[in-house]
Specification:
The complex is a heterodimer of chains A (about 1000) and B (about 400).
Chain A lengths: L2 E5 L4 E5 L1 H6 L4 H13 L3 E7 L7 E6 L3 E7 L6 E8 L2 H9 L1 E5 L4 E3 L19 H16 L1 H4 L8 H27 L3 E8 L10 E6 L10 E4 L2 E12 L2 E6 L12 E6 L3 H14 L8 H7 L19 H12 L3 E5 L6 H14 L4 E5 L2 H9 L8 E3 L8 H4 L3 H14 L2 H51 L1 H43 L5 H49 L3 H33 L16 H33 L6 H6 L3 E5 H6 L8 E6 L7 H8 L2 E8 L10 H12 L8 H12 L2 H5 L8 E3 L2 E2 L4 H11 L5 E2 L14 E5 L5 H4 L2 E7 L3 E5 L1 H14 L6 E4 L3 H15 L2 H5 L2 E2 L1 H4 L4 E7 L15 H8 L2 E9 L1 H5 L4 H17 L1 E4 H10 L2
Parallel strand pairs in A: 1-7, 2-6, 2-8, 15-20, 15-21, 16-18, 16-19, 17-18, 19-20, 22-23, 24-30, 24-31, 27-28, 27-29, 29-30
Antiparallel strand pairs in A: 3-4, 3-7, 4-5, 5-6, 9-10, 9-14, 10-13, 11-12, 11-14, 12-13, 25-26
Helix pairs in contact in A: 6-7, 6-23, 7-21, 9-10, 14-15, 14-17, 14-18, 15-16, 16-17, 22-23, 27-28, 27-34
Chain B lengths: L10 H10 L5 E24 L3 H11 L6 H8 L3 H13 L3 E4 L7 E4 L1 H9 L2 E14 L35 E2 L10 H7 L12 E21 L4 E5 L7 H9 L2 H8 L5 H11 L6 E4 L5 E4 L18 E4 L2 E6 L3 H15 L8 H15 L6 H10 L3 H12 L1
Parallel strand pairs in B: 1-5, 9-11
Antiparallel strand pairs in B: 1-4, 1-6, 2-3, 6-7, 8-9, 10-11
Helix pairs in contact in B: 3-4, 10-11, 10-12, 12-13
The chains are: A alpha/beta (about 1000), B alpha+beta (about 400).
Chain lengths: ~1000, ~400
């Protein structure tokens, strides 16, 4: 329905035609009155329609309740002729619902018999059809009806480029997931011959069982498995030792439901991908905790803010760390902190977490791996902040396990139940309560007795006075006089005292005035003297009055004694007096009892709750005692209620079924969990975090990063994109490369394929950092881990020379003269120093390499040097080489346990540090092939682990002539640097030195 | 994809119901879109949630134990102070308590009226915003009763019916009324003691009006000889008393109907027969005034006119006629078919109810009402054994 109200100010004239009058049954005025009535309310529907005979002209059609009237303009446009009236029909309703004007005519309609009847004169109202206003309104009405409103605009959707970004992210997730599933489905199920109970540590009621497989291998720790064909019997592998597999099930499992023989199937874990997809969905729907997150990520639309200039961290931080700290406290959307190795990222993060928690914010501490999360958590002491670790217990360190919700719940429970002091008090009180109530009753009772006695006492007093008056009226009047005298003297004395005070106050002033020099000194001194005179006279008078008072008091006393003696002697008064005395004694006794009872009661209550000061009133104060009784009674009830409440609390807490976990997590200040854990733990579903701190962000892919970011109002990413990039399946990388080549099933533009590739290869951090404004990024530049000579190389090679060092100097090595050394095998013949290829020893069945010469050199060196350092590690690119060195070193050192955990590939040492680091390049060949050594960031991670000494081992001739140009350039600059600032030694010389010292 | 549902049942059903009312002779039927106002309102509602452990004990300690500061509460329950303070913050955020002077002993706490109410009820009330639409009839401004708010009832936003949702061929006509909704209408409705009967639950807090849009309720208006206008809406198969009352009070509908060209039934139905493809028939009027289109037996059956339509009503140019056949046996069969079809209705649970429901059809077909034996025989004869089962079920009930 489109309607529009039109106001026609002037009155409207209607001249009914003959035909119309007939149609209206000879009563046209009724219709005109109705038009006036309807239009007075602004409720007269009307339309302009083309005339049938001349469509270029319009007639005004008005709709009364029963009739529809067609009105035609008069010649002079001063009124309308009512040409035709018809009954209102459904067709009229249709016309009206399409478009209708609502006429509002405050001046009404009038009927005239003929056009010439319209009054026209200078003083008469002008009659106007006001057709112009009608036409204008009608046109506007029609324009509006046809206009854009009718189309119904679509709601605001996502801008195209945002949609594009989210689509790309979804594709990345899809690709990773598909590849993972394909890989898992190819694996055959694992049959088992036996299942039995396990002795693993329990953290909850979930079942843990051991399965004895028919064949060893095929499953690693942390894999998801299920009993084949029984999807509800699903769990995670805790341990896999050869043929024994320990599975921790998702829930309590009926042992009898586990088939004695059966098959375990390794499941593709869809969890990660479904959580990533859910995060993208949340972002698309604008439901992320920060609604502006998508523009921030895609467009760099950051909000302006001021760092908190006043905030101070608890520990001393260097300039950049403090800058990061201050920005982190106030940034409203996203802060990026670049932390090269050794720059104190963990310290900074700890300070940020503590400060945010102190401000009442809910903090999420998260990272890609459990290890990183546990690392941050270890620095947050329970004394400083209330933190909760959420996740799969078997993936945590022991220290982190102590801070999971379950552990926390046990701790809280134990704490509550152990604290028995209060409950003991309250129980004791409960036992004593009946006695206390009796005391209250007793007190009330004594009050009542005292009140009665007091009343009677007064009654008797009055009776005695009356009796005395009759006995000896003169005595009575004398007593009254004495009383009056006494009062008068008393009053006089008070007045004199006041005067003395006033004079005394004035004296010092006059004294000073008198002492001052000046022409009027004599007058002032005279005044002073006058004052003093007055003072002494007043004193004298006062003494006199005092004497009078004493005299009058004595008189009063003796008169009273006389009266008492009289009364005692008189047979009628005697008993009254006796009774009066008795009552006085009773009252005093009652007061004593009352005070005693009050002290007992307050004494009993004082340990229980706060007793207001001076609660026990004066014995005389009746209403105050009422209040005391009310208060005491209320207090006893309150203490009883507390006792019951506390008993119920302890019982509830003691009941193991009581579900406190949700609340403990909700009221924690800090929640620590992995990125995927934020979405997958049911304990976290309804929590929105005020701030999320994502550590090692340089290692986290964009989809993984989105999962915690959509749950937090603002995020702080801490990482280093010059270190290891997100962990990638080789297949995913191949997938993205295939896409770029156009072999994929989907039709993708090269630009799209490139973008997906970028999203796969680069972390979210790496993509955001270069594009962020200065306000949103901080670079930590002071490193404290590596010796300066090493740090300078790393800084120039990877950090654009921006890294500074604060280090006391390393070294102390028996062989090398610099903390940065290298053993160069290029002095040996080619076949001696060459690598040896192995098949499928590396992840994803990649080819492995071993270098015997390097292995022997490294083993020999470490055996010699290990004693000089607190700890050491050997890092090599290939697992095969690591195994080789392990074997050699075990032989040298003889302690396999110590050796295994200190030799590995780069991935095992990410984030760690050692006093001595030995890195063996391993590749040595004629073709300059270096394989994935070309990933320079891996080298960066490896060599930046060193705290005191770094020793590289490799074939510089191969390295400097590598096929990969950027690697070769780095190798050449490395060699030049070592020659200039470090210590580059030939392998022959080193070998000789080692043999000497063996 | 499900097919779109018609906005209203076919007019035939309304006519059959009208015909069952004794002494009522339907003359014409008009499908109408009745105008109404839809007002969107917002009100706060207290959502009752279960207390958890900590929050309930803290609230009870404040109310029953008269503890007043956060530190006191922490000491009382032997809990870490930080935990207690965060729980109190949560309770303050949902409006259950106030925390002042946080510097003093962790803060003084006091329950708000909402907090006290929740404590008394043992249920954690959380204020939530509830939005809904209220409907008001446009001519009288009366609120529609609850029955009209059923989701199955179509209320259209514009006076047009989408083509795939029209219940028949006759076009629905909209009514026009320009009076806006009275400003105090919503407030008046909110103030009524019986407002729950108009879909305004008592649990709603103070109501705020957000906006008014128009709506149209499809209905059938049946003009009768002596009983005024009958109204039928999607609310039920029976007469609609609400709209009928409005029609009595407000003349507009009646006037519009009266203004429609009355037409000559004989001509209309003769023309209808001329278009009829399944045989030739005649037009007759009963002594009572009801028009009938009398068709031969051969017109009924598979592929032609379905047998259940015998005795039912046809609509042409708003006029009503009953389909008839002189063959009494055929009419009896038609009645028995109908009776058996009724057994599947949920409201029919006994034989007695079934026979009652069939009686009006029997009257209108001018055949004696069937007995249980007749029904059984018919079921057997027409080869519908599951019907026997249903009859047994009803008989046993």
């Amino acid at each position: 329905m489109t309607t529009r109200v039109v106001t026609l100010r002037w009155p409207l004239a209607v001249i009914p035609a003959q035909r119309a009058i007939e149609q209206l049954g000879g009563q046209p005025n009724r219709l005109v009155d109705e038009l006036s009535a309807l239009s007075a309310r602004g409720a007269l529907p009307a339309r302009l329609e083309p005339e049938r005979d001349d469509p270029s002209r319009h007639k005004l059609v008005v709709y009364a309740s029963r009739h529809v009237a067609s009105l035609y303009l008069t010649q002079q446009s001063d009124g309308y002729r009512l040409g035709h009236v018809s009954p209102r029909t459904f067709r009229d309703e249709d016309r009206l619902t399409t478009a209708a004007l609502l006429l509002h005519c405050p001046s009404g309609w009038r009927a005239f018999g003929h056009v010439r009847d319209l009054p026209r004169g200078a003083f008469d109202q002008p009659w106007s059809s006001q057709i112009a206003e009608l036409r204008q309104a009608w046109d506007a009405l029609l324009a509006g009806a046809r206009g854009p409103g009718a189309a119904g605009q679509q709601g605001q959707g996502l801008p195209a480029h945002h949609r594009h970004y989210l689509d790309l992210v979804e594709r990345v997730i899809e690709a990773s997931r598909d590849i993972e599933i394909a890989r898992q489905e190819l694996a055959p199920p694992l049959p088992y011959a036996r299942r039995e109970a396990a002795r693993e540590q329990r953290y909850s009621g979930r079942g843990v069982y051991v399965f004895h497989l028919a064949r060893a291998g095929g499953v690693t720790a942390n894999a998801l498995v299920q009993i084949a064909d029984q999807p509800e019997l699903r769990g995670r592998v805790d341990r896999a030792d050869g043929r024994e597999v320990v599975v921790r099930f998702d829930q309590s499992v009926d042992f009898r439901a586990l088939p004695p023989q059966g098959e375990l199937r390794v499941l593709p874990s869809d969890l990660v991908y479904s959580k990533q997809r859910a995060a993208v969905e949340t972002l698309a729907n604008g439901e992320s905790a920060n609604p502006a997150l998508l523009p921030v990520l895609v467009d760099g639309a950051f909000a302006p803010f001021q760092p908190d200039g006043e905030a101070e961290p608890r520990r001393t931080l260097d300039d950049n760390q403090r800058d990061a700290f201050r920005r982190a406290l106030t940034v409203p959307d996203l802060l990026l902190v670049l932390g090269p190795p050794g720059t104190g990222k963990t310290t900074t993060i700890t300070e940020i977490v503590l400060a945010c928690a102190a401000r009442g914010e809910t903090v999420l501490v998260t990272s890609h791996t459990n290890r990183a999360v546990d690392n941050v958590l270890a620095n947050l002491s329970p004394d400083d902040v209330h933190a909760v670790r959420v996740g799969s217990e078997s993936s945590m360190t022991a220290a982190a396990r102590a801070r999971t919700v379950d552990s926390l719940m046990e701790e809280v429970r134990a704490g509550i139940l152990a604290d028995t002091a209060q409950i003991d008090l309250l129980t004791a009180f409960g036992q004593a309560e009946p006695v206390l109530r009796q005391w209250l009753d007793h007190l009330a009772d004594r009050r009542a007795v005292a009140a009665d006695a007091q009343a009677r006492h007064e009654e008797i007093g009055r009776a005695l006075d009356d009796a005395l008056a009759t006995l000896s009226p003169e005595l009575a009047s004398a007593r009254r006089r004495a009383e009056a005298d006494h009062d008068r003297c008393r009053a006089r004395l008070d007045g004199l005292d006041e005067l003395i005070v006033a004079l005394r106050t004035a004296e010092p002033g006059r004294q000073t005035a008198a002492d001052a020099a000046g022409p009027l000194g004599w007058w002032r001194r005279w005044r002073l003297g006058r004052l003093r005179g007055r003072l002494s006279r007043t004193f004298a008078e006062r003494a006199a009055v005092e004497t009078d008072l004493a005299r009058v008091a004595a008189t009063r006393e003796s008169l009273r004694a006389q009266a008492a003696a009289l009364a005692a002697a008189d047979p009628h008064c005697g008993p009254l007096v006796a009774e009066k005395d008795e009552l006085t004694a009773t009252i005093a006794e009652c007061h004593r009892d009352t005070a005693h009872a009050a002290s007992v009661i307050t004494g009993a209550l004082r340990p229980m709750l706060a007793v207001p000061e001076g609660i026990a009133p004066d014995p005389e104060d009746g209403p105050a005692w009422e209040r005391f009784l009310a208060w005491a009674s209320q207090a006893v009830t309150t203490v009883r209620a507390r006792g019951a409440l506390l008993a119920e609390w302890r019982s509830r807490i003691g009941d193991a079924e009581t579900e406190l976990r949700h609340e403990l997590v909700r009221y924690a200040q800090v929640v620590a969990t992995t990125c995927v854990g934020t979405a997958s733990s049911p304990l976290l579903t309804d929590i929105v975090f005020d701030v999320a701190i994502i550590d090692e962000a340089g290692q986290i892919s964009t989809p993984n990063m989105l999962v915690p970011m959509v749950r937090a109002r603002r995020s702080i990413l801490v990482g280093d994109h010059h270190q290891l990039p997100p962990f990638l399946d080789e297949e995913v990388k191949r997938w993205s490369q295939e896409l770029t080549r156009g072999a994929g099933a989907d039709v993708l533009t090269p630009a799209d394929a490139r973008e997906i590739g970028d999203l796969l290869v680069a972390s979210g951090f790496e993509r955001l950092f270069p594009r962020a404004r200065d306000a949103q990024r901080v670079e930590l530049t002071l490193q404290r881990r590596m010796p300066e000579v090493l740090a300078r190389f790393v800084s120039n090679a990877f950090y654009q020379g921006r890294l500074r060092t604060s280090h006391e100097g390393g070294g102390g090595d028996p062989i090398f003269r610099s903390p940065f050394g290298m053993i160069d095998t290029s002095d040996r013949p080619a076949d001696e120093r060459a690598e040896r290829a192995l098949r499928a020893t590396e992840p994803w069945q990649q080819r492995g390499y071993v270098n015997e010469l390097e292995a022997e050199l490294i083993a020999g060196f470490v055996a010699r040097a290990a004693g000089y350092y607190g700890n050491w590690a050997v890092i090599v690119p290939y697992r095969a080489q690591a195994a080789r060195i392990e074997a050699a070193l075990t032989r040298e050192l003889g302690d396999p346990g110590r050796v295994t955990e200190n030799i590995g590939t780069v991935d095992s040492f990410q984030g760690g540090e050692r006093d001595l680091i030995v890195y063996g390049f391993t590749r040595s060949n004629r073709t300059g092939s270096v394989g994935f050594l070309s990933e320079l960031r891996r080298l960066n991670v490896a060599i930046t682990r060193a705290k005191q000494q770094l020793v590289l081992v490799g074939d510089t001739s191969t390295l400097c002539s590598a096929g990969d140009e950027s690697f070769a350039a780095l190798a050449r600059s490395l060699v030049d640097y070592l020659r200039a600032n470090g210590d580059l030694r030939g392998s022959a010389e080193v070998g000789r030195l080692l043999r000497e010292y063996r | 994809m499900t097919t779109a549902k018609a906005v209203l049942y076919p007019s035939r059903r309304a006519l059959e119901n009208a015909a069952t009312i004794p002494d009522v002779r339907p003359l014409r039927l008009f499908p109408v879109l009745w105008p109404l106002w839809q007002v969107e309102i917002s009100a706060s509602v207290h959502d009752p949630q279960a207390y958890e452990v900590l929050d309930h004990f803290l609230v009870r300690a404040i109310a029953e134990g008269r503890l007043h500061t956060a530190d006191e509460l922490a000491a009382f329950f032997s809990l870490p102070a930080v935990l207690v303070r965060r729980c109190l913050d949560f309770l303050a955020a949902i409006g259950h308590l106030t925390v002042d002077d946080t510097a003093v002993a962790g803060g003084r706490v006091a329950l708000t009226p909402l907090g006290v109410e929740s404590w008394r009820a043992g249920v954690r009330y959380v204020a939530k915003e509830s939005r809904q639409r209220l409907m008001f009839e446009r001519f009288t401004g009366r609120p529609f009763p609850r029955a009209y708010y059923d989701g199955k009832i179509a209320v259209l936003p514009t006076p047009t019916i989408p083509e795939d949702r029209a219940p028949g061929y006759t076009r629905f006509r909209a009514l026009f009324d320009a009076t806006p909704l009275r400003p105090g209408a919503v407030a008046a409705l909110a103030g009524r003691a019986d407002r729950a009967a108009f879909n305004v639950p008592a649990a709603l807090g103070p109501i705020q009006e957000l906006g008014t849009t128009e709506g149209y309720l499809p209905c059938y208006l049946i003009e009768t000889a002596a009983h005024g206008l009958l109204a039928y809406t999607a609310v039920s198969d029976d007469r609609d008393p609400f709209l009928a009352e409005v029609c009595r009070e407000v003349d507009s509908a009646r006037m519009l109907i009266e203004a429609e060209d009355p037409g000559v039934p004989l001509d209309i139905w003769t023309a209808w027969l001329a278009r009829f493809a399944h045989g030739t028939g005649t037009v007759r009027q009963t002594p009572a005034g009801l028009w009938r289109v009398v068709l031969p037996r051969s017109s009924f059956g598979a592929g032609k006119v379905a047998l259940y339509r015998l005795g039912s009503f046809e609509l042409s140019k708003n006029h009503i006629a009953q389909l008839w056949c002189e063959d009494r046996d055929l009419r009896r069969d038609a009645l028995l078919d109908r009776a058996l079809a009724l057994t599947s209705r949920r409201t029919i649970t006994t034989i007695a109810q079934l026979l009652d429901a069939v009686a009006p059809a029997a009257r209108s077909l001018e055949v004696p009402p069937p007995t249980l034996a007749d029904l059984r025989a018919h079921a057997r004869a027409t080869g519908a054994p599951h019907m026997l089962g249903r009859l047994d079920l009803l008989a046993g009930a």
